Known about the structure:
Elements: H1 5-15, E1 20-21, H2 24-29, E2 43-45, H3 50-63, E3 67-70, E4 87-90, E5 97-101, E6 106-109, H4 115-124, E7 127-128, H5 141-147, H6 154-157, E8 164-170, E9 176-180, H7 192-196, E10 205-212, E11 214-215, E12 219-227, H8 230-242, E13 249-254, H9 255-265, E14 275-283, H10 285-302, E15 306-309, H11 313-324, H12 326-329, E16 336-343, H13 349-363, E17 366-372, E18 377-384, H14 389-408, H15 427-430, H16 433-446
Parallel strand pairs: 2-4, 3-4
Antiparallel strand pairs: 1-2, 5-6, 6-10, 7-11, 8-9, 8-10, 12-14, 12-15, 13-14, 13-17, 16-18, 17-18
Amino acid sequence: MPLSTSAFQKLQKIVGNRHASREEEDLSAYAYDATAQVFRPDAVVFPENARQVSQILLLAAEKGIPVIPRGAGSGLTGGSLAVRGGLILAMSRFNRILNIDRENLVAMVEPGVITGEFHAAVEKEGLFYPPDPASSDFSTLGGNLAECAGGPRAVKYGVTRDYVLGLEAVIPTGEIIKTGVQTAKGVVGYDLTRLIVGSEGTLGVITRMTLRLLGLPEAVRTMVAVFDRMETAAGTVSEIMKRGTVPRTVEFMDQTSIRCVGKYLKAGLPVDAGALLLLEVDGRTDEVDAALNRLGDLCIAQGAKSLEKAETKEEVARLWRARKSINPALFQYGPHKINEDIAVPRNKIPDMVRKIIALKDQSGLIIASYGHAGDGNIHVNIMLDKNDGAALATAEAVIEELFDYTLYLGGTISGEHGVGITKAPYVNKEIGSVELSLMKKIKEVFDPRGILNPGKIFPV
């Protein structure tokens, strides 16, 4: 139901007048995310502690007002959009690193902390937090947990859920719950921590997290392998992952991505290449050079036409800047983008690459692919003008075929971006009716009034 004046005044009493807004500029600023879709909320509130979040949810449940938790709004599937109006629960005031425990390799953190700032803080202590989504310079840890974010280092170190030991969260009925442990092991009861991580803000509002840390690797080495054909690069990834040297990253860019970033950044990329692999190894200083050389030899044996080893921090930064700039650079090809993040078993990457090339040739659309080849996670981007009805219809048919083939190969339609609203129409392709029914029942147990981030994940 719409937010009444009296309900808004109650919100102001909970968080303070300065931290609750119905001003048009705030409603506009929080109406969109990285999908570029727009859904105007009724108000934006900025709580600062779990008690305030609890009071907000109790009021929302009483009045039937939707509540949408939001971090930085960098999500790519619409997970933080107010699709049914209601309150945006902006978590930016939860921005403290509460404790970094060097002895036990854990950190206590609030969800509004920027991921890259957390990386820098723990590395100053000689520690390491591996999850590294491409948006880490601006995305928040809370958003990362909500989507179970991955990133380039997932091939060696795993994804966000592998580093979450415990949570404090507020569920839609207003209770503040604590899940998990602060120890390396813990098997008492159901694993509510893993249930909430990746639930896209539909089960609870995370207000504190206990994260597992590692020791910081002594050294990291970076290299680019250049290929004439994307298929050859894809086959090389499969060979790399069969060998004993486990890279910390195996990223790839196809020709469309390379040329786009080359024009966008003037980054010195070989724009005539058919594909690039961006490889990194880490570990002890006396081991990393030998490991990088083994990977380089394997790439050449598999058909790479050249290698470029980054010898300075500036060269490493240039390569990663190119990789992380693909997403914005692609808008040179069109005003709108359909961004998918399929994942397939690693040995099926060559099959998937061939399919993407075939879809590109058949459709005539501009399709760029890049991503985390080491764990089979491929970002497929279709550039178009959505006002062109014929192009949009063709793109939607391509997505259907892409998803069907992904599932045929044993993959998933979303490796790390979540479901949100953009993938919700396709969920029942991957999840059976019985399993989907169980998920809906879990949602109802946590959220009997259906107020928390409604309209997400489940097909309408």
